Structure formats: structure tokens, C-alpha cells
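pinging the channel bc i need a second pair of eyes. not urgent but kinda urgent?? the chain im working w is below, pasted from the shared doc
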Amino acid sequence: MSMEAPNNKSLTGYYRWHARIYDLTRWAFLFGRHKIIRQAAALAGEPGRILEIGCGTGKNLVHLAEAFPKAQITGLDLSADMLERARPKVAKYGERVMLMHQAYEGPVGGEAKFDLIVFSYSLTMINPGYDEVLKLCQKDLSERGMVAVVDFHESRWRWFQRWMGVNHVRMEGQVLDCLRHHFQPLVCQVHHGYGDLWRYVMFLGRRVG
């Protein structure tokens, strides 16, 4: 029997419907997803193993597979509905791309650590728990491993923050503070979405120490 935290249950219910329209709608405001992969490719060299946490419908997995043609890639998501839409996208890569249906509640790499861990608009939806997730990354990363994150950052408009909260997104600058605490920044950029309606962060970093 699968036991899920209350926040996980809420998210799986949310994506049971939103998985149907995710690819059709999210392109309009999930900025920087391709750029963060290009930046990671420029800095990470040729990672042997890559993990994407919150891989959703698999669009990033395809871009990762193309950017890193020699890497073994794992996509993890707690939504079975999202993963159902990811499978056809990654099927052509065979065993090089693997999907895992679970929450990220413990290291998944075992002895074979990951050289790159990617978060694309997933950390701001892990509330509470994003700090614990980043701590787990320390255990899953190789010695010179890197995290690559693109996510919502903040908005000065309270009404927009409340609306994003309805969609399970908390955007109060908390993710960037946590990233800086756990990782040494290599890239740390804050960009504006639709003027200044919101801001999003792009971050690449290595483990502190």
C-alpha cells in the first residue's frame, strides 16, 4: 500500500486533470526550461547519469537526452498521469531513459551517483519539503555533481501570489535562499516574466564543501 504525504495527495489529484492540458498550456509561462539545459551542457561537460525530479510529461527528458547523448537519464514524478504522457516521448531512447513513479523521499541513485540533477518548476510546488529535497540531492550527487534549477521566484503582486497558491505554487523567494544555502552557485540569474508580473530564477550549482 502506497503512503503519501498530504501535499503529495493534493498534487496527484491536481495533475490527474492538468496532465491532459499541461503541454498545451505551460509553454506560455514556464520560461527558461530549454536555456537551463543549454547552460548545464556548457558547464557540466558529459555527465554519465542525470536525474530529473518532477519530470512531468517528459519534455525536459527529451531535451536532456538530445543535449547529453551518452548519459543515462532517470525521470522521477509522483503523478502516474504525467508519466503516462512522458512514456511515448522517451520511448525512442530505449533503456537510456528510465521513468520512476514515486515521490523523492530518499536517495534513488544508490552507489551510482548522479552527475546532474534537474528541477524544472517543481521545487516551488514542494511545500513543505523543498529544503529536505535539496538535502537529499547532496546524497544523490557525485563528488563533482551539479544541480540545475529553473523555477518561479517571487511576485510583488499579492493577488498573483494567491492565484499561484491555488495552483500549489509558493513564490516568496524561498527556493533561491535554500539553493544558495546548500550549493555553491555557478549561475544565479533572476529574470522577469510578462514585464514584472513575476520573476523566475535560473540556478546551477555544486555541493558546498
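so Residues 54 and 122 are 6 Å apart (CA to CA). and Confidence is low (pLDDT under 50) at residues 1-6. — does that match what u expected or am i reading it wrong
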